[in-house]
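Late entry, written up from scratch paper. The run itself happened at the end of the previous shift, but nothing got recorded in the book at the time, so transcribing now.
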Amino acid sequence: MKKNRTSLYLFILSALLATGIGYYWYNAGLDTITVLNAAAAVFIAGLPFPYMLGKLLPYTRGSRQAQKNDITLASDSQLAEIGNIDTLILARHAVVTEGHPYVANLYPAGISQNALLSLAASAEKQATHPLGRAIYETASQRGLQLIEASTFNEIPGCGVEAIVGRNSLRVGSLAWLKREGIDISAELITKNDQLAQKGHCTVFVANGKYCRGIIAIDDALSDDTLKAIRKLKRQQIHMVMLTRENKRTANTIAKKAGLDAAQGQLTTEGKLREIQLLKARGTGVAFVGRGPVKPEIAQSVDALIELAPLTENNSTADIDLSSAPQNPHAIYLRSGLLWDFAALQEIGQQTLSRIKLNKMISLITFILILPLAAGAFHDFGLPFLPAWGALAGQGLALILVTINSLR
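Output as recorded:
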């Protein structure tokens, strides 16, 4: 709608300018034919066709290039946003890492490993978070006996709490359990620091007021993403990971992956704050995730990049390229690979470059034709530019714009 209004305003301006020039020369005493010719030439010279085509063709060409690279755009104008992106915010799970977390080790305190895993899995049975699902699936695979929870509550960014049998269980982050007044031994806290430095996620299991141990969960770095990160760094793209994970864990993963920075232990509000800080520095910011993204996050960034879901074995070979994005306003990489963002940004920058040159062509055409059509040099003996001359100038501009857009 905004684009249509801009074009309409330009047409109206051209008509008003033609009327004003015609009225001026009519009052100056020129003959009617000359006045009408001047008005018609000014109207033609002022038409915004080169300007309109100079934006439409590059967007259309860029959109087709994106489609050839298995990239779906919500609108062609997103290419302009992508062309200005210099900072990528990456989700951890299923983007930086493969998205298949698994239980790497168990560190019980006063109970056996199976008892620790059984307690945690009983509490996590109804959990939706990937780490909770990994704990439950590991316990099921080991054939451990689990007890149904009589009450269950999942707290985003913290963990889960449940009543299992006569036990009040909490399974989640160290910070949350500390806030809840859980007694955690110095030995477990030291172990947590060691695991975080190795890049493991740590899940604490509390029974009543006492912590019964730590479950270390790992998620391997994605080889495809590591290759993409190296390529994007060559394109001067700044990459940051924002996550709820422990700060040490986040920093270790960022270092292994080659990211520029990582911020850990962030709530949704914390992530929004970090995004605003990045944008305040004048950067174009895009968020890259796989699957649904919180609306407030999607609205706070300049562009939302969604990767197609991977298969269970994390292979991109069997991805359904007809699958649709979870967010209708997202740019959808159907390959499921961050690598394709590099190609997308090249397309976006080429599109912006073509539009910029087309605007210059339109402006130069306007500057050259309009004064001649309006009779700006009539008093110096130069004739008015005829209407067909203005039309020829517009035609030449359209040809140049088309050639530049399709090159």
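The domain at 102-218 is CATH 3.40.1110.10 (Calcium-transporting ATPase, cytoplasmic domain N).
(Scratch paper discarded after transcription.)
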